[in-house]
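New here. Your pick:
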Amino acid sequence: MNYLTCRLYGICIRWYRLPNDYIDRIDECDIIIPLSYGLLQNGKLPDGTRQNIEQAVALGMKHPKTIIITVNQNYLGNGAEEKERDKKQILFSQLEPQSCVLFAQQACTNSVSEAQAAHAEAIRKGIKAKTIIVVCEPAHMRSARLLYRKIFTSSRVLLKGVPAQWEKNHILPMCRSPFRWL
C-alpha cells in the first residue's frame, strides 16, 4: 500500500474501532469467541487469527470457567476447515489454555455464519451465556458487535480489539483489502 492509502486506512480504523478498555474490569465471562480469518496460501494461520486466539487464551486465564468457542472457515474450499482446525489445535496446545476450548461443528463462510455457528455450539452444549467477549481486529469491531448482539440476544456482548496486519498472501486477496472490510 502506498503512503496515502495507509494514512486513509489508519484514519478509518481509528474512527471505526470501539474502545475495549473495560474488558479488563469485568468480573465474569461465560464465552470468548476469537474470530477467524481462514488460511494463507502457504497453509498457515494468518497473524490476525493467531493474535485473536492468543488474546482469547489470555482472557481465559483471567476467567478460568470461561469457554472458548472457535469456528473454522470453509469459504476457501472443501477441506480447508479441517486444515484450519488442525492448525488451531496445534496453536491451542502450545498456549495451554486454562479454559475449555470448543470447536464449532458447523463451519462458516462469513461473519454472520461464524456468529450463528458459535451460537449453535453454545446451545448444543447447553451453555447459557450471560457475558461473551468477541476478540477481533478493529476493522471488525462494529459489525461484530452488531452481529453478536443480534444472535446472542440474551447475552451481554463485549469486544476486545486486537491489532493485526493485513496478509498479502491470503488465499482471497480481493476480500482482504483494507477498504473492503470497512
In short: The chain is about 40% helix and 15% strand. Residues 176-182 have pLDDT under 50 and may be disordered. Residues 58 and 144 are 20 Å apart (CA to CA).
